[in-house]
Known about the structure:
CATH superfamily of chain B: STAS domain
CATH topology of chain A: Heat Shock Protein 90
Order of helices and strands of chain B: EEEHEHEHE
Strand order of the largest sheet of chain B: 1-2-3-4-5-6
CATH topology of chain B: Transcription Regulator spoIIAA
Number of helices of chain A: 6
CATH architecture of chain B: 2-Layer Sandwich
Structural class of chain B: alpha/beta
Oligomer: heterodimer
Distance between the termini of chain A: 38 Å
Number of strands of chain A: 6
Shape of chain A: globular
Largest interface: A-B, 23 and 23 residues
Structural class of chain A: alpha+beta
CATH superfamily of chain A: Histidine kinase-like ATPase, C-terminal domain
Number of helices of chain B: 3
Amino acid sequence: MLAKQFRAFKSTLDERGIIFSFSGYLSEGILYSLGDALRQKMALEDTDVTTIKKVFSVFVEQSQNIIRYSAEKVQGKLEKAVELSSGMVTIGSENGQFFIVCGNTILEEDMAKLKNRLETLRAMAPDEIKAYYKEQLREPPDEGSRGATIGLIEIARRASAPIEFDFDRIDSERHFFCLKVSI
Amino acid sequence: MDNLLIAATERSPEVTFDSAAGTLRIKGESYPEDASQVFGPIFNVLQDYLGQADGKGLKVDFELIYFNSSSAKALMNMFQMLENAADVDIEVNWQFMADDETMKEFGEDFSEDLEHVTFNLVPVS
């Protein structure tokens, strides 16, 4: 029963072309290890350097967004201060393209701003995204965004198709947020 | 004047600054949680050096493979600092793997506003 259950779980992931999927508490150390494995896997499959760079970059920005902005966190002090953020990162391939999906909980009060930023980026042509990136690189950061604006533009800039995103309401205060990028 | 010798870590680059020779080299990858931890010490030594260069020049070698968006922002600030030091002769070599479009494009982006700084795109294979 045990093996059957988990084989079915793994088959579902395999059928969707998922290379790996992480769900749980994400740290910078996990980001490094997953990213390293991801680059090795793509290099072994003779993926070209520019594609590896793009996939890796989107993976890093998405993971760091979860680490910074997930509304589901545990904090405490072990040998030093520790903060872990909960979320999901999934990488796979479909129709000859790589895709990266991240998911995490966000607060109701942060949703409108995030949605607005993503809608703006989704509506832009590649040239416009590039120009917007260059403009934002020269701007001082928004209050309290810890670099979110430029991170999302970087993600949109590396994407081969318009970004996809969605929000699923959990309760009156929280949403589950998902962002999918194809490269 | 202070020199810098910071070893690379998994997510931060190797940094070498030699004030007597007037050289700075940043080599490797940069995607730390907090970009100011990597770039803060570099900004401090550069500010001191550029403020009292006394006719000496500065050569900066970038050998970066990958950096995240907050490091890109810090790099842009660094280029603005270099461009503002109008009385110091500054040369930047932006090295990138010849088949790496992303790093080439970043070099082009950074060099766009520079008038006073000499910026060389250096493809390597």
